[in-house]
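tool=predict chain=A
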Amino acid sequence: MSLPSAVRLATSCSPRAVSRRSLQFLRPTQSFAHNGISRSPTTSYIRLYASRSKAKSTADLVPGSKQALTSEVSRLEYGKSEAKMSAAVEWYRKEVAGLETRASGRVTPALLSPVRVELPGRGKDLVKLEELATIGVRDGSTLIITVFEEHNLKAVEQALYAAKLPNIVPQKQDSRTIKIPIPRPTVEARNALTATAQRIAEDTRVQLRKIQQASVKKGDYKKHSVELEEFQKLADKNSAEVDKILAHMKKSTGAR
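tool=predict ok
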């Protein structure tokens, strides 16, 4: 190979693959006369390579998407962030399930699942409604609440109003029973429930971003690092799940 060809080959390689020292690989040598016969001088070249101690790792050339989190601290923080994001998505899924039930017109005891009752003498410790009463459905359109103990009826009634659930208007029947007629949802009511789901979806996305930012700030990772990419992918995956849940509700209720 001629010198110009060798130089062209070297300069065509990646800067990482060829160092300056590796370009200094040509050393001319002269041929000698043999058996008294004089020959015209010729030039050959010996190629010298850089020592292995100067070789650089190619780890930096691997895209972030092909690498894994190598730091134990990063893996632990990733696990915590993943658990928090999953909990946020599951909370949103349950909220949308309740909204979807109301939008579809189905009357079930689950409509009152958000209700929490404050009992006298227990401070701010709230109790689930189903711990104080049974909840049944009559004629497919009316909820019937029957408290276990009469003295809890007033607290249950107040809790129903405090929950501010749409179309929930309690009507006292006797000392232990409350009736709640559930009207069929109108188009406007379904759209309003869908709007509520959209608002909660945005709140959930904000929460996901906060979790991501908190983890990134704690790690103090470098720009374009694999850690930043992995945490971003985690947040994007959970945000996509939120979008999927919302889209399913819109489809099932026919809301716009």
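The longest strand covers residues 133-138. The CA atoms of residues 144 and 179 lie 5 Å apart.
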